[in-house]
Amino acid sequence: MSDLKCKCGHIITDGTDNLPYKGEVISDQDWEAVWGAISELRQSSSDTCCDAITGIRIAHGRDIYECLRCGRLWVECEPGANEFVSFSPDTPVRNILRGKQA
Ligand SMILES: [Zn+2]
User: Fold this and answer.
1) Residues 6 or more apart whose Cβ sits within 8 Å of residue 73
2) What is the largest distance, in Å, between two alpha-carbon atoms of the chain?
3) pLDDT tens, the chain, 102 aa long
4) Beta-strand runs (E) in the chain
5) Ligand 1 centre and the CA of 18: distance in Å?
């Protein structure tokens, strides 16, 4: 994704790693395929594992972004589609995609 303009006018950018307002969603229906692919990596080298896990993420992960202004969540419609649907929060809770270490 390059930039995503939220309905509130805020521009959500994705130009680096470690963003506190970005995550990934994997459908519950895809987890069996994800675990199957991961279990096949047990005998692989570290580089092969990293490449394979990246491939799994690309195949099954949907990007999700939180607007830091209004809290709206933007979820990618399909993995890699770069088309998003938004959901507006009912509560003032924000920063829900921030990492546990943050
Ligand atoms: Zn917004």
Assistant:
1) 64, 65, 66, 67, 86, 87, 89, 96
2) 48
3) 779 999 999 999 999 999 999 999 999 999 999 999 888 888 788 888 888 889 999 999 999 999 999 999 999 999 999 999 999 999 999 999 999 876
4) 3-5, 11-13, 22-25, 62-66, 73-76, 84-87
5) 20
Q: Per residue in 62-86, is it b (16+ CB within 10 Å) or e — as a string?
A: bbbbbbeeebbbbebeebeeeebee
Tell me how far the alpha carbon of residue 95 lies from the centroid of ligand 1, in angstroms: 13
Residue 43 DSSP symbol: T
| CA of residue 36 to ligand 1 center, whole Å | 37
86 alpha carbon – ligand 1 mean position (Å): 9
Ligand 1: distance of its center to the CA of 69 in Å?
Answer: 5
| Domain edges within the chain | 1-26+62-97, 28-60
Tell me how far the alpha carbon of residue 33 lies from the centroid of ligand 1, in angstroms: 34
